[in-house]
Amino acid sequence: MFKFVIVKLVVFLCISCASHTEQHKVNIHNRLLTLDAHLDTPALLVRPDFDIMQEHSHDHDFSQVDWPRMEKGGLDGGFWVIYTPQGPLNADAYKSNRDTALLRAMAIQTMVSVNPDTFELATVAEDAHRITNIGKKVVYISMENAYPLGEDLSLLTTFYKLGLRMLGPVHFKNNQFGDSSTDPQGSIWGGLSPLGKQLVAEANRLGIVLDGSHGHDLLLEDLINLSKTPVILSHTGTKTIYDHPRNIDDTLLKKLADSGGVIHVNAYSAYLTKLPNNPERQKAYQDLFEKFGRNWSTFDTETWQALKQARYQLDKKHPAIKASFEDYMQHFLHILNVVGPKHVGVGADWDGGGGVVEMMDISTLPLITERLLNEGYSEQDLADIWSNNVLRLLKQAKDYADSVN
Amino acid sequence: MFKFVIVKLVVFLCISCASHTEQHKVNIHNRLLTLDAHLDTPALLVRPDFDIMQEHSHDHDFSQVDWPRMEKGGLDGGFWVIYTPQGPLNADAYKSNRDTALLRAMAIQTMVSVNPDTFELATVAEDAHRITNIGKKVVYISMENAYPLGEDLSLLTTFYKLGLRMLGPVHFKNNQFGDSSTDPQGSIWGGLSPLGKQLVAEANRLGIVLDGSHGHDLLLEDLINLSKTPVILSHTGTKTIYDHPRNIDDTLLKKLADSGGVIHVNAYSAYLTKLPNNPERQKAYQDLFEKFGRNWSTFDTETWQALKQARYQLDKKHPAIKASFEDYMQHFLHILNVVGPKHVGVGADWDGGGGVVEMMDISTLPLITERLLNEGYSEQDLADIWSNNVLRLLKQAKDYADSVN
């Protein structure tokens, strides 16, 4: 930590850094290996109207990631998420969600298989540089919400075989593995459940990085204490800037970093700052969902087009109120100040609700690099933030697994 | 049945049928919709050295199906098999094989995804004609050996979602679902086990055709008695021509047909006729497998190439002894004589051990059509044999599922 403070002081005194031209900053961004730790885009891959190879516009279809925009925004890849929403805790629901998760994993694999010159599945840390060096995008697979594993931990091996290398035990609500940060009930397990502790051991045994995002503070503490390798927060902010259960305080942040962990800063507006209420928009959305229903997985292309068009009109009439890029950077800079650039990364929750006014999709990602360079962070710091840190965790997870298997 | 006998008599008396030229017969073959009920090729899809789009030669790499040879042999598609060999009956083995089966299903789906202009996944009877009409090959998915479902019948839904539409409960040995025709122990369940009976009900509920191939006679009887829709034998022969446990007698054959079922005739040489022993070859193969091991799923391309080369040399030195095309046709013609062309199809066990001297891969499939035309079967009979019959079963299975869901 001391070393970091000294480096920062030197950088602040170094006027040459301030003289980076805009183009120079973009060049730096483009030569970095850039990974986002939480890409929710696989939820779009299973939609009949979405083509990852075509450029979309957030204004028109609310999507935030595709190959053309990855090229524009200089994003080399990241962790592509198998997400299932929290449902009831019973055998039938577990099995149904297991199937959904398997099909989602398959959708990610299919995206790679049908675009073999564009994407490549990555499973070890070394893959990232190798894949970007041959001009392809990096596809690690992660899971947000371990719920679809049910009570059958052997399914973690199944998903590992399908490429899974990062796992978050919970989402919005408490589940069989532990406590969520946002369940109205509060903590019921005191962090991880007994099954959740077994899940941690199994993830360690396989070499899967544990992700505390969405976890209750007590769950994150349990992860840090129990996991044999450092923990990630793939998309989380700081309570110091905005006190929200999805953010963590500086004490826990330091504990995470001291244990070798990394926090990837979330750009989910409602977690960045207090936003004004928007009752007309809320009402309009409620009406929209009543009209279309929420059984989205059964929608055909035409229904999707109609829904998108309706959402587009709704957005024009009742615009979303978003946090600003500055709000996002306040989280980013505070976290950097507390733990330094060896423990920070980017996880903006793209296609999962992330985005701020000036950065509503990945095409504007160079803004982050530019701003951090302006703040005096070095290209090496940026290299750590944009990928070295998460790759370090991935390597540590694998090294541990190799040592015990 | 009477109608069939009369039609056959008329055909025999019709001299014009005998005047079909060779080219005319090939033309008939090419305009038929041709499906093989049991393509074991997916076992090759997971090998790093196999490319379904390239033409291979059985002499050199022992493969029997690929797209160029489908074109040559006029094969429009069939049921592509998820096969796992029978292993121990315990939870760990079930889970490991569940994963293997899931990955195999994914390999089939991937074959389709990466070749969208060549293959298409088929799930209902109507798909077959639609897909062939647009010049693509038909990919139905089946499972040989329900063993990887373990004791968790909900996995049948998982595989159904992955496209599964045909299911054989057992393979070489008795398992949790019932008795095999070739287990040295003989029948231990008296046919289907209690879990096997639940499996039948679940397959019916989903609309999956039940396949009695490899099943003990008692299991086939159970399937016929319990299944709500007609049963298939996807690759089986007749005991009347060669008395082997993998073949069935005429009584059971008639029972199958009377219940609306269909038998697809197997071309696995050792089940077609008594073959002489070949101890030198057996010894040579034993040595080969000792040298290479049997952990094939871990072989890289080079090891596969070396193994293929070694097998090629072995085959030249100790040629395989195969049944003849005539042996195959004796089974085919006897079965046709007993149950008629509405209850017979082709399931030659390609890439699963099938093949006879004159027909060692699918490129020679027109031989079957030609021979049956010579025997006096009509183009309509051939259309039934080559696809209508199995598609009828598929439709019946779906109609039943629709009626109860």
From TrEMBL, chains A, B:
Database matches in Pfam families: Peptidase_M19
PROSITE patterns, per the entry: RENAL_DIPEPTIDASE_2
GO biological process: proteolysis
Top-rank lineage group of the source organism: Bacteria
CDD domains noted in UniProt: rDP_like (cd01301)
Gene Ontology molecular function terms on file: metallodipeptidase activity
Protein name (database record): Peptidase M19
